């Protein structure tokens, strides 16, 4: 039972990443009708916001100590980070918490990137076939990843989590079991909680604000909303920016779990599109439900006992489930009637 519970927890944090990326994809498709194959690149850009902030915070000041010489007779180099020199212990904490602090950098950066993408490129493809949308956004994704590769290199760049969250939580003790029965990394629990908060905030924004209500009305009937004098295009641009922010902050918080590299976005893109299709194109609840469901299934399929029976099942389980669901229900779990059914 403890192994099953641990796999369930693994599925929740993995599903949180799938759900966050799929949520942004669904926002874009539901509002603009655009199939955005560059959305995985936005997840990658968010991750590199964390990399960039840490590089800035760990810039070092080098002082030569003439009194202490190395074995080669040269002065010893004393290296200290600028933020620790300027702010002391507070600077040390800034470096320690560089990953969560990177959210403050990622939000404005990703908002600007999203708005520029939508105004500069995506708006010209609103009424074009989905095949053309896929080609142009996929090309944009390749351009973005090559830019990242040029400036940051091809190798993964590990990002440490805050030191006080580097250990593991003894969940078994919290549930009244003996110590060390169910132990799980703190940061994975943090990521799951973070994903739930972000998803809840997006749904609350759409459900309870006037802006969100207008957007939902525009998703249902764009022409009617425009006829009553509302500039729905500006609101849809803002939603594209919001989708970019959601993908970006998801990437930021995922960096301690998976060191980011230039093809991080592509690694998640295909899986996330499967999540969106399974949940139902344009269905926000469907994207979240499918994200967590497929994350949990993939986690259980990676168990040694399961792979011993069906080798490689962990690599194909998501696609297998997608095929079955789409054969039975082409519009997905919670998709609108008529979508992908013709």
UniProtKB/TrEMBL annotation:
Statement: the UniProt record of this protein carries the keyword Transport: yes
GO cellular component terms listed in the entry, alphabetical order: plasma membrane
Subcellular localization(s) per the UniProt record: Cell membrane
GO MF annotation terms: transmembrane transporter activity
Protein's membrane topology: Multi-pass membrane protein
Family label: Belongs to the binding-protein-dependent transport system permease family. LivHM subfamily.
Protein name: High-affinity branched-chain amino acid transport system permease protein BraD
Naturally occurring in which organism (per UniProt): Maritalea myrionectae
Lineage per the UniProt record: Bacteria, Pseudomonadati, Pseudomonadota, Alphaproteobacteria, Hyphomicrobiales
């Amino acid at each position: 039972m403890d192994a099953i519970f641990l796999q369930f927890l693994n599925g929740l944090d993995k599903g949180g990443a799938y759900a966050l990326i799929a949520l942004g994809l669904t926002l874009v498709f539901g509002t603009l009708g655009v199939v955005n194959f560059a959305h995985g690149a936005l997840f990658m850009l968010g991750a590199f916001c964390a990399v960039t902030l840490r590089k800035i915070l760990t810039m070092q000041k080098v002082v030569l100590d003439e009194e202490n010489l190395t074995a080669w007779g040269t002065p010893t180099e004393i290296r200290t980070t600028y933020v620790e020199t300027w702010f002391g212990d507070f600077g040390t904490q800034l470096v320690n918490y560089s990953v969560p602090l990177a959210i403050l950098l990622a939000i404005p950066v990703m908002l600007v990137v999203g708005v520029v993408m939508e105004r500069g490129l995506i708006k010209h493809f609103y009424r074009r076939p989905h095949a053309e949308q896929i080609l142009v956004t996929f090309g944009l994704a390749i351009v973005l990843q090559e830019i990242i590769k040029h400036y940051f290199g091809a190798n993964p760049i590990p990002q440490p989590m805050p030191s006080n969250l580097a250990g593991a939580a003894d969940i078994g003790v919290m549930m009244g079991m003996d110590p060390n029965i169910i132990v799980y990394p703190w940061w994975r629990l943090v990521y799951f909680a973070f994903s739930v908060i972000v998803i809840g905030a997006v749904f609350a924004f759409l459900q309870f604000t006037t802006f969100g209500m207008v957007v939902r009305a525009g998703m249902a009937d764009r022409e009617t909303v425009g006829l009553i004098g509302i500039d729905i295009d500006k609101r849809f641009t803002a939603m594209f920016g919001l989708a970019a922010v959601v993908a970006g902050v998801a990437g930021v918080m995922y960096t301690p779990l998976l060191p980011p590299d230039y093809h991080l976005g592509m690694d998640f893109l295909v899986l996330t599109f499967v999540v969106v299709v399974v949940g139902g194109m344009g269905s926000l609840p469907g994207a979240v439900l499918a994200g967590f469901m497929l994350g949990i299934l993939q986690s259980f399929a990676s168990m040694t006992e399961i792979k011993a029976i069906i080798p490689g099942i962990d690599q194909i389980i998501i696609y297998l489930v997608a095929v079955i669901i789409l054969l039975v229900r082409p519009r997905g779990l919670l998709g609108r009637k008529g979508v992908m059914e013709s």
